[in-house]
């Protein structure tokens, strides 16, 4: 406690924001895996499983747009704590008896969870921008990469936890434990998080919801395609393929997806060292383009290997590991660029708009993941992924270059 007390107020708030984000992410990853595997076991088709997340993604789009505006007006303290509380309620909704756990009820719980997740994420990413001086771009990149990378490592741990708890305790008991722990985190955050965090000096109007910045708009479009490219195979197609076609156990499916996301998160936290120029300059739009191009090739190569029948399981797993490493760097670059491009006063407006595009990409990828897999298989999902990443690279051509920006 003495060590914590000796830290600056900004660092203590950063640690608290990060801790909130970690706790939320752990439950979010576990909940996703629990829902996918549990309802697949109940006989739901891949498309039906995907539709369980439809409202999760749709409400995420709306939340990011409105949440950024709310964060600027009422503060990021309120939006972050609201997200934590909503996740507790969403988890509690799934504790009803099994005969009441209908598709409509699960979709409603997922809708609330989607609102909670994006309120929490928008608040965390925006808070970092308010805690770092505008001139300290190198520090900003490191803090964003650490937050994002650690979050994804915890999300991977959540995938494993979800699969493991489903195997050991069952659906209802796993949900109960997660709801209780997250409620304690929410109470601690209510007491300790700065009440003025992220409040805009001027109250933005509702008409300012949509970004007027070309840089933010272009990066948002690239983000949409990038995350649609991941979720088109990741959300439904891959776990169902591993469980049905390759006959993996639930814990094994959860463990692989956990390792994938944990590795992806670790690479994200290392992204500043991987992408910074030899002269120490922080990344700009050209960096995003250069890292997107090789990523677009990977899913196409995996699809070709699977179609030809060449060591299908090994090609799939190895290829997805390579995809994860490259995707992590691309995602970390985007996460840094948005907080760099965002206006300092009312930062959550630009960040919220950007993550609205992120949620739209996840929505598109989620629906396609179930539908395309059901109709044409995993290979088709991978081909679509390759096309989407190529589109993200094309959009990145319009991102601004900052030759004067240094660490």
Description of the molecule:
With 407 residues, the chain is mainly α. The chain has a single domain (8-196, 210-396), classed as MFS general substrate transporter like domains (Growth Hormone, Chain: A), CATH 1.20.1250.20. The protein is 80% helix and 0% strand. The chain contains 15 helices and no strands. The protein has helices at residues 2-6, 9-41, 46-52, 54-74, 76-93, 103-131, 137-168, 171-192, 214-234, 237-245, 250-275, 285-308, 312-341, 347-376, 378-396. Helix 4 (54-74) packs antiparallel against helix 14 (347-376) and helix 5 (76-93) packs antiparallel against helix 6. The longest helix has 33 residues, at 9-41. The protein is globular and about 50 Å long.
In a few lines, what is going on in this structure?
By secondary structure, the chain is mainly alpha-helical. The chain is built from 15 helices and no strands. The two termini are 32 Å apart.
CATH class: Mainly Alpha
Please name the fourth-level CATH homologous superfamily.
MFS general substrate transporter like domains
The CATH topology is Growth Hormone, Chain: A
* Whole-number count of domains: 1
Low-confidence stretches: 403-407
| H/E element order | HHHHHHHHHHHHHHH
Computed over alpha carbons, the radius of gyration is 20 Å
Distance N terminus to C terminus? 32 Å
